Amino acid sequence: MTDSITVYHVPALLRESIEALNIKANGIYVDATYGGGGHSREILSRLKDGKLVAFDRDTDAEKNLPEDRRLIFVKNNFRFMRNFLRYYGIGKVDGILADLGVSSHHFDDSERGFSFRFPDAPLDMRMGQDSELTARTVLNTYPQDRLEHVFLEYGEIRQARKLAKALVEYRERQQLVTVAGLIGAIGHLVPKQDEKQFLARLFQSLRMEVNRETASLKHFLEQTVDVLNAGGRLAVISYHSLEDRTVKNFIRTGNVGGRRTADFFGNAVSPFTVITKKAIVPDSDEIRLNSRSRSAKLRIAERKHENIEANNGNR
């Protein structure tokens, strides 16, 4: 891995997630979140005549692409995975990896507005620059109840109602344009003893809303049932309780709502075998070297054979 890639993003749980895929030299794999290309390079190093399809909607990610005939890069959201696989003549794949974290590059680029460390940064937070919705639009146009929902659902902020009310009152006097303006508008609500965590939750909630991250994740997960070959692996790294809960419910039940389906005898029926009963998390050494990996959780599932599913349902 080159220095430029390391600066762009240090992948969390790299070894564990790659091993989870059980890579076959001639297999076909998907890296749903290319980013700095760390996971993709590891997958490619294990392929011979296989193929890797990598997705990322950020133009900056293209700067990290290696010249490799086995790599197909799709500059788009992974929610369209199935459509693009069909476009490239691929019906099934042997493994899918998704790292739902934000690249370090995004947090460290002051012009993207992902971090509260840069007061003059614009309220942007778009993963893909071709998207129209920005954090500025959310903050200046959403009604109070919708803002409250965003802060509560995606940031788990207890003061969500007070926060939304304060922002609506502030924007009646002037528009919210920069990070400094946002922090100034809600400064009286930020707990001094927990300031960084509070702001991190606030910015997380705005980012997830701007990029429709929850909806995209659900669309993506639902497609994996049809796209994975029998015996194929799904490995997902999440960093937020809502994401992790969605992934956990999906691999246990086969649907994003976590609705349990049972056969005639009451046995649970799912298209997946759960490989990780408990999520895999970084050890202390990884956290020491990469503090942003602290909240990472890896869950792994394997696509069942159709005849096994049928037998389970007709036992």
Give the overall shape: globular
CATH-assigned homologous superfamily of the largest domain: Vaccinia Virus protein VP39
Order of helices and strands: HHEHEEHEHHHHHHHEHEEEHEH
How many helical stretches? 14
Global Rg = 21 Å
Query: What class do helices, strands and sheet pairing give?
Result: alpha/beta
Could you characterize what this model shows?
The structure is a single chain. The protein is an alpha/beta fold and 315 residues long. The longest helix is centred in the middle third of the chain and has 16 residues, at 195-210. The protein has a seven-stranded mixed β-sheet with strand order 3-2-1-4-5-9-8, with helices on both faces. The chain has a two-stranded antiparallel ribbon with strand order 6-7. The protein folds into two domains: 3-104 and 213-313, Vaccinia Virus protein VP39 (Rossmann fold); 132-210, Putative methyltransferase TM0872, insert domain (DNA polymerase, domain 1). The protein is built from 14 helices and nine strands.
